[in-house]
Amino acid sequence: MLILVRHGRTIANAQALLQGHVNHPLDEVGIDQARRVARVLNDLYPEARVVSSPLLRAHQTAEAISAAVTIDDRFIELNYGDFDELALTDVSPDIWDQWRSDEHFRPPHGESLHELDIRVHEALRDLSAEARSQDVIVVTHVSPIKSAVTWALGGDASMTWRCALDRASITRLTIGPRGASLAGFNDTAHLLEK
Prior knowledge:
Layout: E1 2-6, H1 11-14, H2 28-44, E2 49-52, H3 56-65, E3 69-71, H4 93-101, H5 113-133, E4 136-140, H6 142-153, E5 170-176, E6 179-187
Parallel strand pairs: 1-4, 2-3, 2-4
Antiparallel strand pairs: 1-5, 5-6
Helix pairs in contact: 2-3, 5-6
């Protein structure tokens, strides 16, 4: 099983700012979310290997799950370039339309969804053989997880715009002899527990 976890909340995403390669830590809510996701994952997948994006917010979430974390740079968030830390509402509607309709659209000094898919899909293929026989938890970001879902479903980057993914959510991919299948998406029940 491949278990994909979105990191907990930061000050930037609490304020609805684009947060690509900006390296913010978890805020207090995010730290609590990381503890909650760790509790459920350690119960369900106690022998899982844990892989993380190199960014602090993902790494802090991963460290709540395990002291032994492997960094894989391919799971870093989409590079928003000059859009990093812009409010979502500060990006013009025309730019959003262009971004949604063209997987090769690249924010200034940033990365396209097509480029993200290339690196994330390569990382997923590399983990697939291991994930057939062992649970692997990957702590990453919204865009790489959406890319993983499109990979499992045989879709394309345009599908990512129609997926909502909450902070500290769990998405599960079953890896079988015929490839990947989506087994669960955007699970946040652990965040509601007392």
